Amino acid sequence: MSGILFLAWRHAAAHRARTSILIACVALALWVPWTAGALAGQYDQTLRARAAETPLILGAPGNRYDLTLAALYFRPSRLETVPYQELERLQEGGKATLVPLHMRFTARGNPIVATSVEYVEFRGLEPAEGRHALRLGEVALGAEVAQTLGLRPGDALLSDPTELYDISRPPALKMRVAGVYRPTGTPDDGAVFCDVRTAWVLEGIAHGHAPAEEIDESLVLSRAEESVAVSGALMEYAEVTEENEDTFHYHGDTALLPLSAMLAIPGSRKDGTLLKSAVNAAGELQAVTPTKVIDDLLGVVFRIKAFFDLVGGFLLGTTALLVSVVFLLSSRLRTAEMRTLDRIGAPRRVGAGLIGLEAVLVLLVAAALAGGATAATLRWLPDLVSTF
Amino acid sequence: MSSEPGSGLRPEGSAGAHLRDVSFAYARSAGTRPFRLDVEELRLQPGEAAAVIGPSGSGKTTLVHLCAGILVPERGEVTVGGVRLDALTDAERRRERARQVGLVFQEFELLDYLSALENILVPLRVRGATREELRAGKARASELARAVGIADLLGRPPAQLSQGERQRVAIARALVTEPALVLCDEPTGNLDPDAASGAVDLLLSEARARGAALMMVTHDHSLLDRFDRVLDVTSLARAEEATR
């Protein structure tokens, strides 16, 4: 070790408190913008990746950001619903495969995504245990949900009641866990997947109860040739089992059952363009290209980030100036020491060399700490981005 | 006798220190009339010890700094250990000073963040000694520490040493490079009479034992009879106007 470096190291080590505070200040000033930058980069990459994988999203007219974020990230929102017949109508057009999405309920805080098997294929979800949720009342869990809730195939999961004190609303549904998906590092890990028919049971549009001919007559309000009106006191099944599955039925027109959104997977780029323009021209629905919506959204986010980068830059500059002041004052306090070294025969500007090397040591240690802290932050806080 | 700048020539038999026809102007204090220090001939043989006396501001420290190469004379030759310091570049002169000259100061001037042993090795550190030189220096430092009676204190920082112990560390530091010349600027000024006497005896014996010439500025006339020579600097310095 060079003599001057040795002296700089020993001085820094001997004044531990001062050196530690300086290192902490510089590390903090570096960690904040580094972490923010890295997280923003990761956020940007993840958002764009998910959007890029999704060609087209269709939904009711309204806020396109809400529609996109709900369809891609299952963000809770008050989206207007789309009747199921729209999906069937567009599907008949043959321009794209339409994937239904219903996301109005949660199970222990996790979004219940009611969809079809096409979604599972489209996103490449593979069961790590069990199988897909194909039957009424079954769910397949994203890896994170399964891990957090400690659930495995064969266990049960209750949906969260939406209106706790409204007895006209259906109660929580006890759903069977059919499988658990492999981790994907996407919002799919944090979702509970089921078939759309299960969502309609949750909506109260479909339900199951004892057959009409077996209902206690005191609960029958009227009987006609095609229908039976029963009292609200009739208990509906809160779980779909093999025994009662056949009793589940819809009331009204199944074509009008609600969807939150649809993913469209066009056969070609041209089909996609035609579908999008046709849908938007009709005006009853809206079709959005996720990458464009996300680009617009990130444009706003990154303008705000640029402002915070500027603030971070000022903070870093201020910290650098304060650290410089500390070293400047230190050099004043060490005048006698520098004079001694000069007389003994140290190279010219040994003082500047000592102070400079000590500053470099502080910066290096601070940068290493900030780098480690940034890596740890990215390691331990991945949910900030992947679950958006 | 002469040497080329930077050549580090060291003619045989030229150890010790030699000032010839040296002239240097200096101010006693800011705003006062400059004085001029003229040294026609001053030679210190290896092992020889000289005391430098004179009133405050008479040029004692200036003489020491000229001998150390800290100051460069306007004319004349300053040779230490056979090397013409006045003919070297600043960087070369610094390197030679770290190699050829040992310095002991009144305030000891130890670095408070280093241990006693590390303080002794500072002259080797600042001149960029190699690992082998440092290893040899550590062995010499241990030997010197035994000689000056601080062998048990090498791990302690200066703050945990008495004034006398600090001065002994400073003496060991001055001798660790095996210099040709040891310069002491009132090294006993902060010591009580007994400690001062002991420190001077120690310096003289260690310098002589190592064949180093020694020049010591002192105000303590009771110590003068221990030196081989006594230089009264007032005989060298005079007001500048007188020379014009």
Look at the structure and name the CATH superfamily of chain B: P-loop containing nucleotide triphosphate hydrolases
State the shape of chain A: elongated
Radius of gyration of chain B: 18 Å
| Sheet having the most strands of chain B | 5 strands, antiparallel
Low-confidence stretches of chain A: none
Number of domains of chain A: 2
Strand percentage of chain A, roughly? 15-25%
**Ends apart, CA distance between termini of chain A:** 49 Å
Oligomerization status of the protein chains? heterodimer
What's the N-to-C terminus distance of chain B?
A: 29 Å
Number of domains of chain B: 1
How confident is the prediction overall: mean pLDDT of chain B?
Answer: 84
Architecture overview:
Chain A folds into 2 domains: 3-47 and 297-386, no CATH class; 56-288, no CATH class. Helices cover 50% and strands 18% of the residues of chain A. Chain A is built from 12 helices and 16 strands. Chain A has helices spanning 3-14, 16-52, 64-73, 84-93, 117-123, 143-149, 196-203, 269-282, 290-333, 335-344, 350-380, 383-386; strands at residues 56-59, 82-83, 96-107, 110-115, 127-130, 138-141, 156-158, 174-181, 192-195, 206-207, 220-223, 228-230, 249-250, 258-259, 261-266, 286-288. In chain A, the strands form 4 sheets. In chain A, strands 1, 3, 4, 5, 6, 7, 8, 9, 15 and 16 form a 10-stranded mixed β-sheet that branches. Chain B has one domain: 3-Layer(aba) Sandwich (Rossmann fold). Chain B has helices spanning 60-68, 90-100, 116-120, 122-126, 131-148, 163-175, 193-209; strands spanning 17-27, 34-44, 49-53, 75-80, 83-84, 101-105, 181-185, 213-217, 229-232, 237-239. The A-B interface holds A 2-4, 6-7, 10-11, 13-15, 336-337, 339-348, 350 and B 68, 70, 90-91, 94-99, 101, 103, 105, 107, 109, 111-114, 118, 122-129, 157.
